[in-house]
Amino acid sequence: MERIKCIISYDGTAFSGYQIQPNGRTVQEEVEKALTKMHKGKLIRVVSSGRTDAGVHARGQVLHFNTDLIIPCSNWKKAINALLPEDVRVLRVENASQDFHARYDARQKEYRYFVLHSEDKDVFQRNYSWNQTGNVDLKAIQAACKHLVGEHDFTSFCSTKTDLKGEKIRTIYHASCHKEDEMLVFVFRGSGFLYNMVRILVGTLLEIGRGKRDPDDMKNIIEAKDREAAGETAPPQGLFLWEVVYD
């Protein structure tokens, strides 16, 4: 039995999220459907580095699965892509050790969130960014980002709808925001992220950028450990799972 590691990308627009659910099209369902066809009807389950919500995209989601087929990695990529819909692509396939686990072995994840800072909406960006107008102080956002780096209890940035029962302590290694033409690009790298954490961070940072809060307020929001202390939840379409890092 071989263990295969796959790096995939997907456009989350038409998906109800990554994980299989009773009603709604999902990324996991499409990948498993393709693999099951390759295995002549034998159900093949895949394990991912984590879930993404409806409308959220991925540039570097990582999966693993077990197989009794002996196929070169380059052929795996071609074969799976031939059976996948156009909004999911396999980027790379590797042989993995039997103890590799896409979720539990992940050491860092990088998410990026895109905000189109423009008075005019762009119809070609509506599924891949959040359109915002008005003045935004980028330096204030950057100053607030510095308070996020390190190990903190991020309860204030976790949706109350989470099913997580344990502690909400996470480590953020990098948090920043820069501008590329009219696009504000938020970058977060961390040991892991809570449910809706990046989207709540972006919503809060934009409130700071608009002068509704002070950059130093970020410290108080973290210490509050209360979802009510943070800002709004940014919509899903601007969020991308960018990369998953392993040892």
Quick description:
By secondary structure, the chain is α+β, with helices and mostly antiparallel strands.
Please, could you describe this protein's structure?
The chain is α+β, with helices and mostly antiparallel strands and 247 residues long. The protein has five helices and ten strands, in the order βαββαβββαβββααβ. The protein has helices at 27-38, 73-83, 138-145, 197-209, 217-224; strands at residues 2-10, 47-48, 57-67, 88-96, 106-117, 130-132, 150-153, 169-180, 183-190, 239-246. Strands 1, 2, 3, 4, 5, 6, 7, 8, 9 and 10 form a ten-stranded mixed β-sheet that branches. Helix 1 crosses helix 2 and helix 3 packs across helix 4 (197-209). The longest helix is centred in the C-terminal third of the chain and has 13 residues, at 197-209. It is globular, with a radius of gyration of 19 Å.
